[in-house]
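Lab notebook: predicted structure, single chain.

Context: the supervisor wants predicted structures on file for every construct in the current expression panel, including those that have not yet been purified. This is the next one on the list. No modifications to the sequence; it matches the entry in the shared construct table.
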Amino acid sequence: MELAFERRGAGAPLILVHGIGHHWQAWLPVLDRLAAERDVIAVDLPGFGVSPPLPPGTPYTAETLADAVESFCAVLGIREPHVAGNSLGGYVALELASRGVVRTACALSPAGFWSRGELAYARAVLRATRGAALAVPPERAAMTAGNPVAKAISVGMMVAHPGRLSDEAVLAAGEALRNSPGFDETLDSFAWLMPPAPPKVPITVAWGERDRLLLRRQAVRAAKWSGQRVKLLRGCGHLPMSDDPEMVARVLLEASAR
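Prediction complete. Output recorded below exactly as produced.
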């Protein structure tokens, strides 16, 4: 597919994949740090950001979104890139690693390692978050983004340090969440999402110590699945790129140097 993307830097290609309801701009806090050493391509998944939806009749699942990223790389003429993702994007990265079509994969708080209760909780939070975004008029959204208390309430489930997010980033994320035609069907598909097949390439899994959406105890299951220790991102929430850009960039560069 032809997908919207941002490309910066030079070196080995590194594809960045965002989570459900987000857009490529989720990676802005780390983009230039990564671009100093990698050819970084941050992509909008189909039905999210400003990328077109999946073709009619194609279901929204983590696997079909991984198909789209794989074909996107083929369109750009990139073979076996490094890939990193957050949340749903983390699952996509691991799915591509299980196919053996990437060189390395790094997953930050990836989806798919939940219990049934944790899945129900995460889906309820995500539905409520999108419902709130849809209910807020644009003029009120701007006021919310500029109010420290309101900002903390609106994004506190996703980041450990709301104050480190700019007002512009909060507004843009809210708009992306409202305008995500792939959101509902993708969220419904989580009910059947299981960890992918064992990876065929080196992987790194890291988890936000203060992740309030995909609770950090899920990292234990990810460690058992991968057979390796999961890195704990201290002081970080579900979107660690915003909480500690320097640490996250270091993790991604180390992962893609393996």
